[in-house]
From TrEMBL:
It is an enzyme of class 3 (hydrolase). It comes from Imperialibacter roseus. Residues 113-140 form a coiled coil. The keyword Hydrolase applies. Its EC number is 3.-.-.-. One of its GO terms (molecular function) is hydrolase activity. Residues 40-257 form the NodB homology domain. Keywords: Coiled coil, Hydrolase, Metal-binding. This is Polysaccharide deacetylase family protein. The keyword Coiled coil applies.
Length: 270
């Protein structure tokens, strides 16, 4: 029995020698090198070219010197053209949000432009045309895109296809919607950036997201629609003001910048 015990002990020692220490304890990852030692990045983004964005929203951003990313539907730009030209002159980033904002036909309002009835060719034509119209109106070449409704497919059933590759071909980066987490700058696919909803939230809710992002050195892309004080799909101006004041304090370690600016920086560091 003694010999058997010794042999068993020697076998265990041998097996443990083969196992790396990393098997038992997760090694800390190296923090992502954000500019000036910042702990996390935040991008403010808004969809659809809604009137409230240039009728009050951009004025608040400009007051604090903050630049946001606006994903535009060309038809909505035309009714507020002077406001959007001013936004461009102020340095805000302009992106593409498609020509007709197609989403699943499960949304009744999208039944006439349902993604289930789209083809990849039709989607590419629509994105190219939206780029063309935005360029004609605002003189901007769109390098960033947001998927309408956060949906990235065309077709249905066995014929369903992803149009992420088309977005990746046409744009430097593309953002989703209603996602649950911030982006890991060391890993993120620029064609599928996560977008976390900012609509309907007070600053205390946003602060929880920020603190979580800071723990892992992540990039939080906030996504909203209307910019005002209340109502459906509205990012509250009071919340934005608190957020911008928070980010302005160097002690909080936040880099607040448009999507394209952060993406270019992340790309350069990878």
């Amino acid at each position: 029995m003694k010999r058997d015990t010794i042999q068993a002990t020697n076998l265990l020692i041998f097996l443990f020698a083969l196992i790396s220490p990393e098997t038992f304890c997760q090694q800390p990852t190296k923090p992502f090198p954000w500019p000036e030692g910042k702990q996390a990045a935040i991008s403010l983004t808004f969809d659809d070219a809604r009137a409230s964005q240039v009728n009050g929203g951009t004025a608040l951003l400009d007051k604090y010197g903050v630049k946001a990313t606006f994903y535009l539907v060309p038809a909505a730009v035309k009714s507020q053209l002077s406001g959007w030209k001013k936004a461009v002159a102020s340095g805000h980033e302009i992106g593409n949000h498609s020509l007709n904002h197609p989403c699943s036909g499960n949304f009744v309002w999208s039944r006439s432009k349902a993604l289930e009835e789209y083809t990849l060719e039709k989607m590419e034509e629509e994105l190219v045309e939206a780029n063309k119209q935005i360029k004609e109106m605002l003189g901007v070449d769109c390098k960033v895109f947001a998927y309408p409704c956060g949906q990235t497919f065309v077709g249905r059933g066995e014929g369903t296809q992803s149009y992420v590759p088309i977005a990746a071909k046409l744009f430097d980066n593309s953002r989703g919607w209603m996602d649950e987490a911030a982006n890991d700058p060391s890993y993120v696919d620029f064609a599928q950036l996560t977008g976390v909803e900012s609509d309907g939230k007070d600053f205390d809710k946003i602060l929880l997201l920020i603190e979580q992002a800071k723990k892992s050195g992540q990039w939080l892309v906030l996504a909203g629609h209307e910019m005002g004080e209340g109502g459906d799909q509205t990012t509250r101006l009071a919340m934005l003001e608190e957020l911008m004041k928070y980010a302005a304090d160097p002690a909080n370690g936040i880099w607040l910048a448009p999507v394209g600016t952060v993406a270019d920086y992340v790309s350069s560091k990878r």
